[in-house]
Amino acid sequence: MNAAVTPGRKIMGRLAHGEDLLAGLERIAEERGITLGEVRALGAVTQARVGYYNQAERQYYFLELAQPLEIVSLIGNISVKDGKSMVHAHLTLSKADGRAFGGHLAPGTLVFACEYVLQEYEAAAPFVRRMDEATGLFLWRED
C-alpha cells in the first residue's frame, strides 16, 4: 500500500495516572476522530506488558514487567480496525540501571506519567487493517 497523505491537526496532551497506556491513546484518537496518524509518547509506567510476534508460529508472546519503568520511546501509527481508531505502537522501556525492554505495546501497561503527541493525516482513502494471509497479522489493505 502506498498513498499520499497530508498533515492535519497535531494534538498534544498527557494521560491520567493509572490509565492503561494503549486504551488511553486509542480513547484520545477516537474522541478526536483521528483515523489516520502517528503517535509518539514519553514518560513512565508503573507496570508494562509488551509483545513479541513469533513469525513461525504466528502468535504473540507477552512479557509482563511488574515494576516501574521509564518510557524511553513510544512510536506508532493510528488507522482503522473494525470501524474504530486503532493504535499500533512499539515502545522501549528502561529500568533504573539502564537495561531496556521493548516490544509491541499491549493492554496492561499502566501510566505513571505520560505526555503524547498525535499527528493526524488526511488521505484519499482510509487505511484499514485487515487480515493478511502471508503474515497472519492485521495490516493495512487496499480493497
Name the features.
143 residues; 60s Ribosomal Protein L30, Chain: A; 7-stranded antiparallel sheet; 1 helix; 9 strands; globular
Description:
The structure is a single chain. The protein has one helix and nine strands. With 143 residues, the protein is mainly beta. It has a single domain, classed as Hypothetical protein, similar to alpha- acetolactate decarboxylase, domain 2 (60s Ribosomal Protein L30, Chain: A, 2-Layer Sandwich), CATH 3.30.1330.80. The strands form two sheets. Strands 1, 2, 3, 4, 5, 6 and 7 form a seven-stranded antiparallel β-sheet that branches. Strands 8-9 form a two-stranded antiparallel ribbon. Strand 2 and strand 3 form a beta hairpin. It is globular, with a radius of gyration of 15 Å. The N and C termini lie close together (10 Å). 27% of the residues are buried.
Reconstruct the topology from this structure:
Layout: E1 5-15, H1 21-31, E2 37-54, E3 59-65, E4 69-81, E5 84-94, E6 100-105, E7 110-123, E8 128-132, E9 137-141
Antiparallel strand pairs: 1-7, 2-3, 2-4, 2-6, 2-7, 4-5, 5-6, 8-9
